[in-house]
Description:
mainly beta; disordered N terminus; four-stranded antiparallel β-sheet; Immunoglobulin-like; Invasin/intimin_cell_adhesion; Gliding motility-associated C-terminal domain-containing protein
Amino acid sequence: MKxxxxxLLLLFAGGLASAQNxxxxxxxFDTDAGIGGNKIVSVTAATDGSFTFNPDVSALTKGYHMxxxxxxxxxxxxxxxxxxxxxxxxAPVTTTALTGxxxxDTDAGIGxxxxxxxxxxxxDAGNFxxxxxxxxxxxxxxxxxxxxxxxxxxxxxxxxxxxxPANNKLVSGEYFVDxxxxxxxxxxxSLSAQTTDIAQQFAAQASSLTEGYHKLYVRFKDAAGFWSxxxxxxxxxxxxxxxxxxxxxxxxxxxxxxxxxxxxxxVPATSSDTLALAIPANAKSADIDTLYIRVRDxxxxxxxxxxxxxxxxxxxxxxxxxxxxxxxxxVADFDPGAKISSNMPLTYTSSDTTVASIVxxxxxxxxxxxxxxxxSQAGNISFKVAxxxxxxxxxxxxxxxxxxxxxxxxxxxxxxFAVSATATxxxxxxxxxxxxxxASIVNGKIHIKAAGKCNIKxSQAGNSNYNAAKDSIQVLxxxxxxxxxxxxxxxxxxxxxxxxxxxxxxxxxxPLTYTSSNTAVATIINxxxxxxxxxxxxxTATQAGNNNYTAAVAQTQTVTIIKGxxxxxxxxxxxxxxxAADFAPKAYATxxxxLSFSSSNTAIATIINxxxxxxxxxxxxxxxSQAGNxxxxxxxxxxxxxxVSKASQTITFxxxxxxxxxxxxxxxxxxxxxxxxxxFASSNTAIATIVNGKIHAVAGGSCTITASQTGNGNYNAAAAxxxxxxxxxxxxxxxxxxxxxxxxxxxxxxxxxxxxxxxxxxYTSSNNAVATIVNGLIHVTGVGTxxxxxSQAGNxGYNAATSVIKSLTVTxxxxxxTFADIxxxxxxxxxxxxxxxxxxxxxxxYTSSNPAVATIVNGLIHITGVGxxxxxxxxxxxxxxxxxxxVVKTFTVTKAGxxxTFATIPATPYLSADFAxxxxxxxxxxxTYTSSNTAVATIVNGLIHIxGLGSSVITxxxxxxxxxxxxxxVxxxxxxxxxxxxxxxxVLAAKAYNAPDFDAxxxxxxxxxxxYTSSNTAVATIVNGLIHITGSGTTVxxATQAGNxxxxxxxxxxxxxxxxxxPAGTSVSTLAISSENNDSTAETRLAVKQAVxxxxxxxxxxxxxxxxxxxxxxxxxxxxxxxxxxxxxxxYDNQQVVFDGHSSVxxxxxxxxxxxxxxxxxxxxxWKNLNGYFVLKY
Length: 1178
């Protein structure tokens, strides 16, 4: 029992937007202090939105409490509150005694039933007896509950039991194969004496059966004459002679992995049908476990036997492990020395494998320190796991010595050599030199630096595992070494070339000395050969030696001096401008000889007296040459690029005189220093423009005239020069002819005035009631006179002109009425316009000569009766228009037509209520109806009244009135059919085998009598309208009503009737059948347990289908006694996907009773089906 428990909280849609954003959980017990006012815990949700936390229950009293939780996301949003019931229990009390109480069928309340006590065993289980004295034979329910050491009662456990009389013995039995011949007609099974055993063995005759699979059925009869349920078992008939031998075997513990998937056992080649098999000692199993074994014989390589079972209980074993002595690092691997009572092999481990590890069962030391050695034994099929024993091992530092051999005599210049000293610890040895001017230690090797003698010391300082070693010293002797001079041949040297460094070298790398045999040809300057003149000389190289080297033998080489080459150095030209003075190029020859020059483009530059003379702008190459002499070869020509840029120029521009708009264009006075033509531009073309090189005055004002010269191939553009130009305004006059009179309504027109400047003339009207100016045109607005003034206000180029005024007269306009003939209309037509219009656009007025036929209402013709009337259209004119001549039109009003709409009448059942036929007229006048057959239907108050079965024609009519003509009649056929009826039939309750005849209680809505039939007369028949039970099982009772002359037959209703097979006091025996090799074929056979009791006792709590795990692709469907599907799941596996009494359709627990299964599963040969039934009880 725990005082703190873990709660897993899952959030679904409708809680928080994202479970990954949960940051806090708030919880409380029993009473809510409000959001944020309870205990809050910070949490981090997993990717699936789940998390765990531990509520504190230390302040709660023992017993049941209500835990409330809610979570908060990162946006501070709280979820809905989740409620869970929890029980707070105190710490457990160790006791083996347990008390409780039980009752049968009726619970008298906690503490008021029959008490008992038990003693729990090691498996926390115990037994007690229930007294059934005085309890009637048959099925009963026993209720049990336990009380713990604190006096707290547990939940009530319910179990179904059957009480069987002591003298109720089996007296006979029978079996049959494949087909049931009927109770008492099977092959008899003889019992030697009456027995109460529920398991019987017998030999079934199979000689007449065909080879293959069959169904064997068995049932027994007790002393009271009652037969049991029929038990069914699949068997296989195999007709195969010969010696039977076991060829394969396998085993497993507790859970069957599937046929052929267990752990294989070795079967001797000489085996028979009986074999002793040994299970490997290292087979993994629990301390108390169940071992299963099955075998396969030589008759069929795919056929396995039933499983043999054995209960396995392991023995205990003890480890003895003495304390470990301190070890010095470096000792050989050693046995830890632990012993075990079972003599089983021990396993050792080290807590610190950096100090010591276990190698091949021995301790291997790896460094100083301490580690805990553990001795363990994992047990096997015969022994339990031994308790691990531990001992502490201490590892101390080890000792070491150095072995250092004598050093060989060396000469100066010898290569670095390794020293062969070693430490017994295997640690690296370091070396030092007593005189580092003679020898030093480089990367662990001796490096010779001079001739002489010195001591070399070998040391090992130790480490965390070894003490320091004693130093070891050896003497090193180094002698002088000889040297040689290598003097490669000297290449030919040219006069004037750089001095040459000879490549002779001494093996000692000491500096060499050189001499020349002919200083007129070559000399030695600072150790280099200097060529003086063409010819040959002998060069001698010598080296005198030093403290480490003896003198070297001198070496000679002959040197040949040849003519020298020369090159030309030519400095880059600085850019010059066109017109620059002649200048000399800056060039020289390395020989010092004089140079000559030439030009690649004489259009740009020529050479005159050794100087460059500019002839045009552009680029040119100046070429320098030197032909050589007796001492030097000719030099290679060298050229240098010369860039000649354009020359500058200036403009002279005289002051400009003032101009007036309209005056003649003038030519500016300007010129350039280069003599090139000058162009002009105006800064404001609204004041002045340049036309053909002359200045043209556009408007009064001032602007800048710019003189420019853009240059050419030899001259750059000149700097522009500007002069200011002043222009004064010109004068203008208006020409405006007299205006002719116009009538009102005339289109807008131009007044026709013009200005001498060509500028647009504007107008104004002195009387806007007569005319206005719109977009520069005269627009007539009324009748009368007005003065039109023409003006031109001038602009930047012209002064304003003097305005001119002309008088305009506007007179009234005439108008006409257009009035089309009026189309005759029937009464009821909506008011409408007569449609007359006046050319002036003014509204037209109407009058009617006959108000009995039509009147004028709001300017529209309104029909008042049938006949004719004259409609007069008139327009009286206004201030702008004269009156129009009136127009008269005759209008005729005629009677209106109407139509009847009458939809088809659907077939009508007898006894239907009176109903409206549903016809209507377009005039809205009422409809009258008649029936052609009053025996079928009559018309009552305008409704159809049903009198009998058959058909009648219903006619709809409308006779018209003063306004509407009569409508054409419309008929529809009415058919009266039989009345419908339904049956009400409640679900039938299960009945006992000997129940009396009873009424099924079905009724018809018509009140007519009900008839019944039974689908299985072996279960029930119908006698005088009552259900008569004839046997146990199920049958479908069908209720029908055939109808009569007025009612149609009612739809039949089916109800399943279940008749229980066991009257009270009757026992039914079950049969256990043993048959060799009928557990499976090449494909695993399925076997469905015949009973399910989901009461939590661990026995038959779920529907078990043996072998189902061999077929991952499967679907299990379960049907209840009423034929309804209550369960269907794919991938049934007896573990996660199981039927535990709950419907997969509704989720509710199902009632006890007989249920039917259909299993569809895929084998290697295709899909197969298996069906049958099982009993659900509690």
